[in-house]
């Protein structure tokens, strides 16, 4: 699909400096761009590339002044980075704008769906499934009985959504995600064997939640595992049964959260963090990567380490961690002097 500089400027509320009929059909970095591509210049460190870029169109700041001749058509905007992000979003919407129901698939007689949906091939819709308007479900997805999916939600290929799950509006669920599998509940017997504790709850995902590829969210034993609105989950995260994650919290890849832990609003949790079960983590908490959380955390704390403790204390202590060999050598030398009188 091709766009002219004039069309792009209208989308971005910018002005064209050059040929308004210049066409582009792809997006590129300014240093790697080729003819027919669109790029942007935001960081001054990349300013030199504006004179050598082969991009047909470049988005720049309104007050940008070039000191040498350029061949690229300019679109001037208030904020080039934000404008380019807007364009990426628009491009993605166009690229993903599929509709219709492909064959083969299975749709239960009791399943209902709204207008302008896309249902990819080899997809299964179970009993009493309810799907809103403008939902897109890519091929090879399993949607279990009694699942509800809100308007404008995007489910990528290979997602498995178990029965009773509720997903809100404008969510994005990437490939390989499993929502609603059984929580890890087993009772040890007298002779060492385990008996399974039935997991009869569900998963509730509110509006505007993004879930990265390969992430798993377990159903509750009773009640609901809850992912509140605006939460952003990276790839390969494990969320156990009855966990609650507060609004607008963002969690990086490979983090694991054990059962019944409650995480507050607007938290930032780094990659490979391990969080024990039955804990309460406050609002606006920041957890550094690879930390191990074994106790409750108050609002606004920043922590690091395994087991974790205050971020400032960790940094002060780390200076001593690095010097431990030298400190031990000095202690050994002092002990020798004491023994030798």
UniProtKB/TrEMBL annotation:
Pathway: Bacterial outer membrane biogenesis; LPS lipid A biosynthesis. Its EC number is 2.3.1.191. One of its GO terms (biological process) is lipid A biosynthetic process. The lineage of its organism: Bacteria, Pseudomonadati, Bacteroidota, Flavobacteriia, Flavobacteriales. Belongs to the transferase hexapeptide repeat family. LpxD subfamily. Catalyzes the N-acylation of UDP-3-O-acylglucosamine using 3-hydroxyacyl-ACP as the acyl donor. Is involved in the biosynthesis of lipid A, a phosphorylated glycolipid that anchors the lipopolysaccharide to the outer membrane of the cell. Keywords: Acyltransferase, Lipid A biosynthesis, Lipid biosynthesis, Lipid metabolism, Repeat, Transferase. This is UDP-3-O-acylglucosamine N-acyltransferase. Residues 21-89 form the UDP-3-O-[3-hydroxymyristoyl] glucosamine N-acyltransferase non-repeat region domain. CDD domains: LbH_LpxD.
